[in-house]
Each structure stands twice: as structure tokens, then as C-alpha cells.
Design brief:
Elements: E1 5-10, H1 14-25, E2 30-33, H2 40-45, H3 47-68, H4 80-105, E3 108-110, E4 114-118, E5 121-124, E6 129-137, E7 141-143, H5 158-161, E8 170-174, H6 178-190, E9 193-198, H7 209-221, E10 225-228, E11 232-238, E12 241-246, E13 251-254, E14 256-259, E15 263-265, H8 272-275, E16 298-300, H9 311-326, E17 340-342, E18 347-352, H10 355-361, E19 364-371, H11 374-377, E20 385-392, E21 398-405, H12 408-420, H13 425-430, E22 450-451
Parallel strand pairs: 1-2, 1-6, 2-3, 6-16, 8-9, 8-14, 9-10
Antiparallel strand pairs: 4-5, 5-6, 7-15, 11-12, 12-13, 17-18, 18-21, 19-20, 19-22, 20-21
The protein binds NADPH dihydro-nicotinamide-adenine-dinucleotide phosphate.
The site of NADPH dihydro-nicotinamide-adenine-dinucleotide phosphate has 23 residues, from helix 6 and strand 17.
């Protein structure tokens, strides 16, 4: 049976674009369909615009600190419209680069929705069908808003934040994960009055308990009204505002209610089930270690598989798929010791295990230092950083590292390399400090604060 393509990729986000480009570079005939904008969540409505908003928001703190350091500064306030224009121009530029890179590699782009007719056939929205030897599903995920809450359609998601016309004055953020905490800090820094409701006992479930407590205190210290053990009971439109009744009886009005209550895989309506692809309970495509689905010709990478939902992981999964299928070198994407950062202000970078998970696994020593760095102490700013290492008592290997500090995302990348190489506590001890820095503490912690 003749095929039109060796590979048809559905979804132009981080995982799909990487796989398409690298496969085409092997000489394969590749096409890619994207129904929205090239670049996917990361570039268009996730990591990139979020990080630019983090930068924008950070200047309000920088200006306060600068005054304490002796600068005379007048802030005219933040101009969202001006920033938004520049932000979207930058996203257009990046989208153009993604598109150009695919073109250069010889990937044929179809700017429309694609679904599956069978294990080798893709049907486009305009009715055309193509047969491909392999199909890669890389359709990502989308924000989830629980539809059980009356008035839920009044809520925004992270998608809406990047497009908003004006900066809302009073904001409610619902949720306690990455996106909720990042947007709470961003919008606070941009000048909004921010309230955050989280249903559980402490934000950032799944992260290290001590770090979670530290972040929550820092967020409250910045003036974010954080209420844990609190969820939304109902939402109503009242004039221009949204009235919110909380599960603890609290009532308040907000100019924007942003739900950051998780994301769901984009697996619906693609014709997957009819072809025999298996979906999990949350709609995630089930794949083996090589990203292959139950149908041998169909593979899936990235958030639609709900493994580790991070851009660099999707990119590695896409690259491993090409190694396996087009270069004849079976390659499993490596999901071990993936470092990540929550872009709160300051940031929280982590890699490896939490103290709680590690002590369930084996005997450990915990090294932790929380202190006011020089830059804050000088201006009596009571914001502490945290450096924490979790060490195996048996092998002496570093099992986990947690850093809350300005630039923690940058720092944790470096610690990730050391941990990937199998660094022990003694390797850290042998390393001479860089002085004066905050991060020298990571090689100076001599006595465990706890053994468990
Ligand atoms: P998360 O899974 O991190 O957090 C979802 C939050 O919503 C949790 O606090 C959860 O509570 C809460 N929640 C879930 N369902 C409900 C509900 N029905 N009612 C009330 N609250 C609810 O999801 P995010 O949307 O923040 O982010 C999605 C993923 O995207 C992340 O897990 C991460 O992989 C990735 N991401 C990474 C970033 C980075 O690297 N910096 C930034 C942003 C996203 P509970 O804890 O009780 O379940």
C-alpha cells in the first residue's frame, strides 16, 4: 500500500514540531497539521508569555527595592495595553520561527484540524485525506474548569489572561498548582489585588512540604490573600463584577475569576477510539516506553499522554520517537530526575524527590538552610530564601534538591546536571563556594537538620 507520507504529525506544539522537524531531517516525507497557531501551549499561551509576564511583574518589586537602595524613582504605573502589544508581537515572531524551521526541514504544514479515519489515514477539516506509514499524536492539553460549580462559565482560564483587554483590579485565582501560584504572583506584581482559594490544606501538592509552606508564607507576605481549605461554591454576574460565594461562607466580588484547576489531554474527537488507541481514565493516550499506542502505526508524545507535562519532556519524547522509528535506534525518553521550576516570585526550583517520598523509600539526612540573603538583609526586607538537600544515608547520593530563591529556575538546572551524574553529599562538600552568593549555601551545609 502506497503512503503519501512516512509521518503525519497532528499538533504543532513543542513535541509535535520537534518530532516533525527531526524526522524530516532524516529524509522522511513529513506533514504536520495544526488547527490553531504553530508553537502550541508553550509558545502561544503558556511558558513563553507567562515568563514575559513574570519579568514585567518583577519590576514593581525591583522598583521598591531600588528605592530602599537609594534610588529616586517615580513609577507611572504599569501599562498593560503597551505590554500586551509587545507580548503578542513577540509571540508572532516566535510562531514565525517555528513555521520557518519546519519549512526549511521540508515539513508540509496543514493549517487545519486533522482527525484519524483509521490506523494509517488522516482526514483534514477540508475533507482531504492522506495516508501515512506512521502517525504521531501531539495534541497537548487544555485548561479544565469543573462544570459542577454554578456560574463556572464566568470563569477565565490561563488562556484568557494573555488576551485580556485591561488589567483587572480585583482577581480571584482558584487552584493551588503551578499555574495558580504563578498567576497569583504575576498579577499581584502588576498591581492587582489578588485572592487565591485552594481546596486542600496547602498549595503545590506533590512538592516538598517544607518548600510548600515556605512559598505559601512568601506569597502571603507579598499581600496575596491566600485561603486554603477553601473552594468556590457558586459564581454570579453582578454588574461588571463576578460575585463569588466560597465553601466557607465567604462572599466577595472580583473583576476576574481565574480557574487554574488543572489541564486535560486533548484526545477527544480525534477518532482515536475507533482505531483501537486506548485512552486512560482522564482521557490521556496510553503509550508504552517508546510512546507507541496500542495501534502499532500510531504514537503519541507530550501532554496528551499525561506523563510529565513539561515542554522539555515533550521535546525529548518527540526526539526519542524519531530515534526509535526513523533512525532504527529504539530509545526510551528519560523521565528520571527532571528538574522544573514554579515561576512564583521568588521562584521554586526542584529536582528529584521530596523529603516525604524519600523518607518512605530509605533512611535519609536532610540539609536545609533558610535565610535572608544579603540583598534583602541590607534593606530589612524580610524575605528568606531556602536551600534544601535530601541525601540518602546509605549511598550518600543527593535524592532531592529544593531551592526557593530569585533565579531558582536557573540554579536548579545546574543541580540537575550534578544529580544526573550521581553526585553525593561529599561531592557537594568538596566543591568550593562561590562567594558572596546565595547559592554557596548548597555546598556549605555541614550538619543535617533532620534524619529520618
Ligand atoms: P496542577 O495539576 O499543577 O494544579 C491543579 C490545581 O487545581 C491543584 O491545586 C488542584 O487541587 C486544583 N484542582 C483540580 N481540580 C479541582 C477542582 N475540581 N476544584 C478545585 N480545585 C481543583 O495544574 P495546573 O493547571 O496548574 O498546571 C498543569 C500542568 O502544566 C502542571 O502540572 C505542569 O505539569 C504544567 N505547568 C508547568 C509549569 C512550569 O514548569 N513552570 C507552569 C505551568 C504549568 P489538588 O491539589 O487538591 O488536586
Amino acid at each position: 500500500m502506497a503512503f503519501d507520507y512516512d509521518l503525519y504529525v497532528i499538533g504543532g506544539g513543542s513535541g509535535g514540531v520537534r518530532a516533525a522537524r527531526v524526522a524530516a531531517e532524516t529524509g522522511a516525507r513529513v506533514a504536520l497539521a495544526e488547527e490553531y497557531r504553530m508553537g502550541g501551549t508553550c509558545v502561544i499561551r503558556g511558558c513563553v508569555p507567562k515568563k514575559l509576564m513574570v519579568f514585567a511583574s518583577g519590576y514593581s518589586r525591583a522598583m521598591q527595592e531600588a528605592r530602599a537602595y537609594g534610588w529616586s524613582l517615580e513609577s507611572g504605573g504599569f501599562n498593560w495595553t503597551a505590554f500586551r502589544g509587545r507580548l503578542h508581537a513577540e509571540l508572532d515572531r516566535l510562531e514565525g520561527i517555528y513555521r520557518a524551521n519546519l519549512d526549511r526541514a521540508g515539513v508540509e504544514i496543514h493549517d487545519q484540524r486533522a482527525v484519524l479515519d483509521d490506523a494509517h489515514t488522516v482526514r483534514l477539516a477540508d475533507g482531504r485525506t492522506f495516508r501515512a506509514k506512521h502517525i504521531l499524536i501531539a495534541t497537548g492539553g487544555r485548561p479544565f474548569v469543573p462544570d459542577t460549580v454554578p456560574g463556572h462559565d464566568l470563569a477565565w482560564t490561563s488562556n484568557d489572561v494573555f488576551l485580556m483587554e485591561d488589567l483587572p483590579a480585583r482577581v480571584l485565582i482558584v487552584g493551588g498548582g503551578y499555574i495558580a501560584c504563578e498567576f497569583a504572583c504575576i498579577l499581584k506584581g502588576l498591581g492587582a489585588d489578588v485572592t487565591q482559594y485552594y481546596r486542600g490544606a496547602q498549595i503545590l501538592r506533590g512538592f516538598d512540604d517544607e518548600a510548600r509552606g515556605h512559598i505559601a508564607e512568601l506569597m502571603e507576605g507579598q499581600g496575596i490573600n491566600l485561603h486554603v481549605g477553601t473552594d468556590v461554591e457558586r459564581l454570579e454576574k453582578r454588574g461588571n463584577a463576578t460575585w463569588v460565594k466560597a465553601t466557607d461562607g465567604r462572599e466577595a466580588e472580583f473583576d476576574a475569576v481565574i480557574y487554574a484547576t488543572g489541564r486535560k489531554p486533548n484526545s477527544g474527537g480525534l477518532g482515536l477510539e475507533a482505531t483501537g488507541v486506548k485512552l486512560g481514565r482522564f482521557g490521556q493516550i496510553e503509550v508504552d516506553d517508546y510512546s507507541q499506542t496500542a495501534v502499532p502505526s500510531i504514537f503519541a508524545v507530550g501532554d496528551v499522554t499525561d506523563r510529565i507535562n513539561l515542554t522539555p519532556v515533550a521535546i525529548r519524547e518527540g526526539a526519542a520517537f524519531v530515534e526509535t522509528v526513523f533512525n532504527g535506534r529504539p530509545t526510551k525518553p528519560d523521565h528520571a530526575l527532571v528538574a522544573s521550576a514554579v515561576f512564583t516570585q521568588p521562584e521554586y526550583g526542584s529536582v528529584g524527590m521530596t523529603e516525604e517520598a524519600a523518607r518512605d523509600q530509605e533512611p535519609i539526612e536532610v540539609y536545609c538552610a533558610a535565610f535572608r540573603p544579603m540583598q534583602n538583609a541590607f534593606i530589612d526586607k524580610n524575605e528568606r530564601v531556602l536551600f534544601k538537600l535530601i541525601v540518602s544515608a546509605g549511598t550518600r547520593k543527593i535524592l532531592g534538591c529544593h531551592i526557593i530563591a530569585p533565579g531558582a529556575g536557573e540554579l536548579i538546572q545546574m543541580v540537575g546536571v550534578a544529580m544526573k551524574m550521581g553526585a553525593t553529599k561529599e561531592d557537594f562538600d568538596r566543591t568550593v563556594a562561590v562567594h558572596p552568593t546565595m547559592s554557596e549555601e548548597i555546598v556549605l551545609m555541614k550538619t543535617p537538620v533532620r534524619k529520618a
